[in-house]
Fold these 2 entries.
Entry 1:
Amino acid sequence: MRQPLNSVILAMALIAVPRAQSDAQVPATIEAYVAAHQREIVAELADLLAIPNVRSDGAGLRRNAEALRAMLVRRGLNAEVLETAGVPLVVGELRVPGATRTLLLYAHYDGQAVDPGGWKQATPFTPTMRTGRLEDGAAEITDFRTRATLEPDWRLYARSASDDKAPIVALCAALDALKAQGLAPTSNIRVLLDGEEESGSSSLGAALRQHRARFAADLMLFFDGPTHPSGRPTIVFGVRGNLGIGITVYGPKMELHSGHYGNWVSNPAMQLSQLLASMKDPDGRVLVKGFYDGIAPLSPAEETMLRDVPDDSAALMKLFGISRTERPGLSLQHALQLPTLNVRGLASADVGAGARTIIPDMAVASIDVRLVKETLAPAMAEKMRAHVRAQGYHVVDAEPDDATRARYPRIARVTGGGGTNGYRTDPSSAVSRAVTTAVTRAFGTPPVLIRTMGGTLPISQITDVMGFPAIVIPTVNFDNNQHSDNENIRLGHFFTSIRTIGALLRM
Amino acid sequence: MRQPLNSVILAMALIAVPRAQSDAQVPATIEAYVAAHQREIVAELADLLAIPNVRSDGAGLRRNAEALRAMLVRRGLNAEVLETAGVPLVVGELRVPGATRTLLLYAHYDGQAVDPGGWKQATPFTPTMRTGRLEDGAAEITDFRTRATLEPDWRLYARSASDDKAPIVALCAALDALKAQGLAPTSNIRVLLDGEEESGSSSLGAALRQHRARFAADLMLFFDGPTHPSGRPTIVFGVRGNLGIGITVYGPKMELHSGHYGNWVSNPAMQLSQLLASMKDPDGRVLVKGFYDGIAPLSPAEETMLRDVPDDSAALMKLFGISRTERPGLSLQHALQLPTLNVRGLASADVGAGARTIIPDMAVASIDVRLVKETLAPAMAEKMRAHVRAQGYHVVDAEPDDATRARYPRIARVTGGGGTNGYRTDPSSAVSRAVTTAVTRAFGTPPVLIRTMGGTLPISQITDVMGFPAIVIPTVNFDNNQHSDNENIRLGHFFTSIRTIGALLRM
């Protein structure tokens, strides 16, 4: 039901003054609004999910952009599709008279590529409601659009259900819920919907520079990612960056008979193994010189923050089938405060039934280094190269030619170096405390506070240009099959996120 | 031209006495015979090569066996197709009155699998003559069967041209050449043609045991493999064995997000790298306990023998594009006297464009250990397992179950252990010296003497059962593309091998 105009005017007046006592009631009224409008909120999400949004489908992405612009306009935002060098951005603005703070709300509307064969439904863009987890044999609910009540354990399956269309629809529903109470946000709102997040947000930096004034804000709220597995509302103050490094160690120019030349021609798979082994001690500490440079010991307050995260390590270890973690004594949250050196892939000739008795001609490792705020990508890439050199390798950027082969006994090609920097804002800053307070008030209990989450989000690409801080508000279920087949959003998480976002709009 | 019967009778008489002075002329007369009969000798080889001989073609293998039996019968051998549990053997016998020595002549008639698409001719079983190396752009000679003269640099392309049908046809031609001079072999001859060499000669041991008396001999001459790259006639007194070992290091039960869990869940690709690195020092010496046990220092005579092999290390290094060998100071021949630990393949998740930001669930290495006479396969397999255990791994034979995962922090599956033992006979024994003398006499210059060749031949499978020594007589060009597309035999090597085999039949 639409609010009469005078309610809106009343709300617009309210925001010019400090938050009224009545705001204590806002969470409950949002919850009531959501309960009363479940069907139409979920229908709006399902309609959005039905528009294909993969990288290769430019027309589909543009249809998404147009639909999103219309959704923002319906909430009273001044919105447009903003062209970039690549996929367009969708931007929106809601100026609130008297507001002294401007929030930039970020989400993305593009999705990971799909392999339709792996999806247990007509297509990844045919939103499909189930009574629970597909893996648990949940039944499909074909008439969900006409059901009176939708259960919190139900899940809507479609590409981008969780990553990252649900937060956009939740934002729209939160604006509707406030409006229904005659409330406006307490901050000016700028919305930035990225269409290239899954492919690296490569056009975003230039667009931000070109339209800098339109994106100016005091704080960015970055809506992406899952809440803590405990299901509790979660606030994330930092993310790790990522740096992909490829290492190829070269052996003989061609594969050689392992009998005829074994012991005489060096084996690049063994050399690569020795090179990788030189990078970590047996307890998982990285030995690359300077790898941990600049990372200060944690303060008592930070230690407390990490300890308060309700991780269930034993349950995770059981789920993963491991009986020891990499660095005994380092909790999961502590582990996430440090950069990683992860061998994500190895390849050399063949194994198993296809193995042949040869000395391989090369061996390849793919490494991803997760970065923290203190360890910048370019410097880390150079440290990795320096380490390879220190092991006696001549480092090349391309296949070695004959002259290079004749000159250097050990040759490695090291690729990579772009990468995404990590990011972290101070959890004790005024704006961080305001966000924490707003979410605490919305639920009557403190959210899970994450100093640094393990994964990577393109936050530094924005904050490096714009200069204001960012806080991540993850909202979806952690078991959403993000980036995989059968991605889904649990309705309970989706409905809760409307409350969370509503609280932030009123903080 | 066939010899009149009385010449044959004369020859049969001759062999009862010590080798006559006239034997000094034998090499020259064999050479003359070959020169005069090039066309028919090559035609017989081409006809044999036209019969498909891959593992999967049982009917083709049997056609080969029948053709070979007929070829031996035409040379006066008592020959038959001998059934085994698998592909039949072809066996033949020529008893020579008065001979005090029996030679078992081994070759194999099966070939490696073929990928017809890689062959630059109608089929791998359409023998195709070229003026030289295909790789050098040699022209095809379609009318080679009617040419008066065949040039030594010409090559006949077909599967098994070198490996291993050429030696069989050369043996037949050598018998013909002797017969043309009224000569018989100076030893009793037993022929053993294996139809399963390329697939491991798995039926051979049982057949030998079942028909032990039929294969009894004083010496086995094993016709397989290439001569020294110098092209000089070559005698090989030992071969390395081979033991395939697979190692799988287990990580989490499923691939995990490298951001969410990096630094907390151990990485099996890194652990495998550390495990492999623990097996060799930087100078290529294997660190597995007991790896070199039982290998005595070389005697001065053995050192001389190795030094006399005319290896062109610089040319090989240039060809392979390497500027240093694995163990500086160890010559190629010295390297071949020791067992190897060769990583023939590595695999874990993906590299390159397909690399994903995950902690892999497992990492696999395929290793082949080339064995020498002193290092037996079963003991070496156990030493490898013991080494893995000594690095802190619980070694399993199958995928670890949840209970195993919960109990052991490091788990590795180690497979393999059958393997083929190495073999070596004493180059200074009477029979070894007789072989060396015969080949030296045939060419007027000493052959290349190889104490241990690097590759593996199934010699120990025969000598372990039969008890007599074996010597390998390789005859084909080293650049024959053995086991690959476009296998070929250089006619010069083929014709020379008839002289070599003739000399051995008269030794």
Entry 2:
Amino acid sequence: MTTKTVKELAEHVGGVVHGDQTVPITGAATLNEAGEGDISFLANLKYEKEVQTSRASAIIVSEEADLPDRVLIRCRDPYYAFMQVVVLLYGHREHEKVGISPRASVAANAAIGRDVDIHDFAVVLHDVQIGDNTCIYSNCTIGPGTKIGRDCVLYPNVTIYDGCCIGDRVTIHSGTVVGQDGFGYATHDGVHHKIPQVGGVVIEDDVEIGANCAIDRGTLGDTIIGRGSKLSNLIAIGHNTKIGPYSLLVAQVGIAGSVQVGHHCVFGGQVGVVGHIKIGDQVKIGAQAGVINDVPDKLSVVGSPAWPITQAKRSLTLLKELPEFRKKLRELDKSLRRLIQDG
Amino acid sequence: MTTKTVKELAEHVGGVVHGDQTVPITGAATLNEAGEGDISFLANLKYEKEVQTSRASAIIVSEEADLPDRVLIRCRDPYYAFMQVVVLLYGHREHEKVGISPRASVAANAAIGRDVDIHDFAVVLHDVQIGDNTCIYSNCTIGPGTKIGRDCVLYPNVTIYDGCCIGDRVTIHSGTVVGQDGFGYATHDGVHHKIPQVGGVVIEDDVEIGANCAIDRGTLGDTIIGRGSKLSNLIAIGHNTKIGPYSLLVAQVGIAGSVQVGHHCVFGGQVGVVGHIKIGDQVKIGAQAGVINDVPDKLSVVGSPAWPITQAKRSLTLLKELPEFRKKLRELDKSLRRLIQDG
Amino acid sequence: MTTKTVKELAEHVGGVVHGDQTVPITGAATLNEAGEGDISFLANLKYEKEVQTSRASAIIVSEEADLPDRVLIRCRDPYYAFMQVVVLLYGHREHEKVGISPRASVAANAAIGRDVDIHDFAVVLHDVQIGDNTCIYSNCTIGPGTKIGRDCVLYPNVTIYDGCCIGDRVTIHSGTVVGQDGFGYATHDGVHHKIPQVGGVVIEDDVEIGANCAIDRGTLGDTIIGRGSKLSNLIAIGHNTKIGPYSLLVAQVGIAGSVQVGHHCVFGGQVGVVGHIKIGDQVKIGAQAGVINDVPDKLSVVGSPAWPITQAKRSLTLLKELPEFRKKLRELDKSLRRLIQDG
């Protein structure tokens, strides 16, 4: 950790200081958790109330924010600026340069770049290529013929099967498996016969994948995780599914096989998607939704089966009113009968 | 990859050629993705439209299919025949014969069959038995007293706990754990006391289990995965649950403890099943369903809580009509009031 | 296994024998599965019917149970007593004392307590502290600066990242990952920029975590799993979430970031919880529920989105009656029209 003045931080993020620019900052925290010496941020005005009780020494805010009593850094994108400040104050995790451990198992014909680290008990099989400055942690296995780019990090206990292709600056967290066989069987006379899964997996540049995910290889052709997409933990991606660039998948999402997902989509936690459908660009899917049909660009869907959020909200509200509906129906029925009798 | 003529492929699958039987085939692909030299298949007539635009050089179809302009192989079960062709053209993954690596750790009293491969940094503990021609990949651990049959494959980073029993021709993908303690506690005065989990796990012949699954051992008695059943990725099976033969479980299914599942069941992705219930034979459970009661043989259920698909479809359609219902109720109410007033 | 008389078992659990106290007991089982020589239990009167067909030689029951023909041990908490009997008869799993394997990789400056076992191919990095009598199984990795207390067990293939803190008597099953980076990005001009995750994970005393779970480290500050809480398999816990003591989380639960969970809560399987909410004490959440708002103490909620169980049951029953509703609405409409016409 380092100490910076508010002035220095403002310069770093391209912001404008309001208040005492000499205030020293040693840490970063949310409004609620910040103490003396911490900088915080206000990205969403619905949290403005929390500013009043926050003990933060400075707050990064949007250009129009008006908080006269506080030391502020005003900027266009406060959350992005906060990220820049966190990087400046704390830095990203550093990976010790251990070189290639004599306790790792590296095939003689593997093509290993410069400044690569391969930790104890990692296994790199034949015909593997690993780019410069990549770090393979302990107990990982990299299957035959797999290519890994430069500046990647594979945390302990990751498995990459044979013939996969991983781009540059890819991070894969522990326990994740890439390239296992997809779920493909031809059932004949009640017995399930395995279809060889001879495709691969392509993970493009700047992807990050969380812990204990499972990315199937393609049956024929590849499964693809697009550039800059980020996956959280315990996510299952089926064979031949293609995820476009810059999408976000929250934990425990499951996408079946042969799905096409566009760019800049957001999948909430535990979303499920059936196979062979197409999800457009910039689609938002609410947590636990079950998507069974194509979704056009920019639509927000929720529910299982998933439907447009506006429609869903209306019907779900009415679901709560069902007891009222029944009561009303009975009243109407009674009144009508009486009317008919009387008439 | 090899090249075969359409005639050779037809003979291999017991089909009948329509059109030029000398066409050379070098690959297999779906109708959409096939190019020159590829063979494809049409198993479901709803995809017939895709035949028109497909660039496949030949198509495997059912006996009654009528596609005069294409080179066809007609047969009884096109998808099964396609599987046979894929196996012929590409083969299944081959496992390099490495023998028992000096960098593996194998207990002195382990009974290891002939032609067994144990890769670097795998651990085989005391009293383990491993059958002929089985392959244990790197960084797997096989617990004390566990028996593994012949022709099995355990991919890297699999853990089998103590005292489990795995049949012949079983495949387990990376990261999967078999035999961890089930979730059993007796809560007394607010503290959860662990119940020893002293049962085992039996995985019968010809089972395949995907990546990062977790199969609990039994509390007393065994958890059983029946012969020929196939599990996809990230599946959780609770203690003492018994899954019948030839069932299919799609990714992220969770089955609690002491559930009995019949044969030839199909569980969609993310299905959840509560403990201590009985699911019959040939039951189909839709993705994301939550099963909380016994399900009789051959029934299809969906939804959470799960109910028969026919009933569910009706009510879910009506759920979308709730705004209409409310409108109608109000109109009726208004008309009735007017009528009563007027009367 | 040992043999005990019913008298000895009754004394061990502080119960009172009804019937022949010399009956020898060699095993324990559920009512359904028990045979000659087994002791079983009846904790819930709804299973009383199973007593009649059970072949158990003795049954542990509550103080008021009345089953004249059977050998009984009456006590205050039959399930707790059964657990004590299972421990007495079978014991907990024993961990072979292997010491520190020469095939493990242990940093020179790691502080290792007395009677610690570190198995083959486990990796303990610099500045790690491990308390007395803890067992680290094969292929685990313990990141730099992590502290692990005494009497812990980490099963094979567990990964603990850097700077985590694990209490005493903690058990972590295979494949689980603790301390991977949370899902934190600042999206700017369509690109997701990683926010360094510089917090840690605190796992308090007496916690047990199942297989293949993923516990995110905090962004700033810690993720906490409270004392005596028990997690089953394939559970995802987001960054900075704090789970109170003695809570139970069934398999495949997913809790997003910055959630506060109270003490003695019970989460059913596949429950999802959105970020930044507060779940009170002794809350019960039904399987597959999706919690999107704060839940007050002691409430039971179900459904997605989750609502109080009493309310949900009413509306879900009515959901099944929707076809009836529509029919009734149409009848009313018809009657009314006729009435208006006639009038």
